[in-house]
Each structure stands twice: as C-alpha cells, then as structure tokens.
Amino acid sequence: MGDSSIIISPAKTLILFGGGASILDFALASKRRGLKTYVFAVTRHLDEIINDDTSLTLKRALQNNEVPFYHVSNINDSPELKTIILDNKACMGIGLGEAYTFTQETIDLFEGRLFDFMVIRLPQYRGGAHFTWQILRKNRIGCWNIQVINTEMVPGVFDSGQILKTREYVIPQGARIPQDYFRVALAEALKLFVEFMDEIDAGKEFKLARLQENFSVYFPRLNTIKHAFINWSWNTGDIETFICAFDDPYAGASTFLNGERVFIKDCQADYTEGGFHPFMSGLIYRVHGNVVFVATKDCALVFRKVCDEKGKDMISGLKVGQRFYTPVKYLEEAMLFNAEYDTEGPKQKEK
Predict the structure, then answer these.
(1) Could you report the per-residue pLDDT of 8-54, keeping only the tens digit for each?
(2) CATH: 1.10.286.20, 3.40.50.170, 1.10.10.10, 3.30.1330.30. Which one for 5-219?
(3) For residues 192-228, b (16+ Cβ closer than 10 Å) or e, as one string?
C-alpha cells in the first residue's frame, strides 16, 4: 500500500462482518462470483429482522441461503477467523455496520484487503442512527464510502480510515421515514459492491483520500424507547419530522394518553385546518375512520397509526377531546440519556 493509492489483488475468499440486509446481498453476490463466503456477526445482528414483511432474521436468511456464519463477540480472539484465513488464499474482509474494533494483528491477517462500507458522507454524520439524524435535519444526500479499516475506528463512534471509493446519491422526495432511506441505501450499496469487485478484478488503482476533519460532524447513537418522546410545545413541522424520524423500522415516537404510553407512526401535517392556541396542542379534535386529527400550536397533525406498548392498534378506541401529552420528566430524561450498545444489544445506561 502506497501513501496515495492502492492496487488490491483479487480475492478468492470474502469474509463479511456486521449486520443488516446488505450483508445478505453482499454474501449472495459474492457467491455468484464464485468466492468462498463467510459472515461473522454478534448476537444483535444475527437476531435482527432484515425483512419486515416476513420477520426474517439475518441468521435465518443466511441459513436459508447456505452462507456459513459465525457468532463471535470479539473478532480479535476468534479461532474461526484465523482458521479460515490460514486455510484459504486471498482473503478479503468487508465490514457493514460491524460491532468490532480490529487490532493491528487481525488487520495484518488480510494483507491490505480489509475494508469498511460506511453509509454516511464522511466525516459528516459520524456516530450512529444516521438516517434518523438526516431526517431530523431534512438532509437528502445519501452516500456510501469504502474506507481502509484501521485500529482507531470505533463502531458507532469514530471512523478515520482513508477513503478509496465513494458513491453519492439523492434520497427521493417521497422518502419520509428511516425505512425509505434504508431501501434506497440498500440498492446503492449493492451497486457499489459489484462495481468495487469488478474494478479490483480489472486491476484498478484506487486513490486514497484522507478525511477532511475540519468538516467533521458527530451525532450520537439513539435508542427509540428512551429518546423518542414527543414534545407538544414544538411547532407542527418539527413534531411531524420527529415522528417520521423514528418511524419504521423503529418502534415509533411516543407520548401518553390517559396515563398510558402510546407509539405513533404514519404522521402528516395538515395546514388546511388553520392554527390552534398552544394550550390546545395534543388534543384530538376529530376521528374519522382510521384517521386521527390532532391540534398543534400552528396547525394540525394527522395520525394513521397509534399503538399501545404491545403493538395493538388503538385508533378505533380514540375519542375526540382526549389529549396526547408527554410529562416533562420524560422529555428531560430523553435529553440526558446516552445510548450505548454492546454485542448483545443496548445498554440501559443513563447520564
């Protein structure tokens, strides 16, 4: 590897690290190319649902497609990884949202062929919950970066590898919730992966670019259950954006009704009703069919999905005159909560 460019020798074996639907897409594309393919993941990634329609988990999807996988909490202590690399020639490693920080010893096993696919415009949007933060900021510039993995990279916290390939794209105007952003990103990721592998086979020289730290932006990880409480004092647009940002595939933004916590999705602002006094914010003033109309201080919100904590639909039981309300203590706790994750999932740690 030189200081400004790199030529990557073609791989015969691909080892994937991480989770999400792109792991399966990459694994199947790799197998079609005739590469031996393996996946290493932690518990929360293997148990993650990658198809909402069928509730298919990554673990089951890999099993169904006969992709060998390993449940490994600490990749640097994995005998399975070392055995695969020693028993196979020309191994390449690719991370996709992996939970691992690689030691130099592990990096060296790949002989310059260990890379990470990062679904943000580096160094902007470092951290976690990328699409939620993008929706909150009304940002529609999507990007995948392929970076060289180094020992300084901490999942969900810090990315510092040199960039060897970038693919930017525009998120369509019709995309409103994280699921929409995910769908577009998945398609773009597979295009980038295939293009990257084709260029490697063709002997392309990749120019390396260092991150411009003066443009660095960091937003922390989020936990929907802890963070996504609706503040009814906000204006309508901010509430609408907030609810959209925690919509599918997440649990939804939440508030309280008659002392019980509820989760709201499928929200849209309605500016035809005129404004309301701030004291009226949160009041249900119309229920029509499966649609709920709620007052806010400058216009109205229309909800099409309101569920209880067990996921049961509540719209049929809602009545005019009821009020959605979030006690201040929940709003304060959301602002102070620090979302941390380990290999098993979220840590319930407050600061």
Answers:
(1) 999 999 999 999 999 999 999 999 999 999 999 999 899 998 887 78
(2) 3.40.50.170
(3) bbbebbeebeeebebebeebeeeeeeebbbbbbbbbb
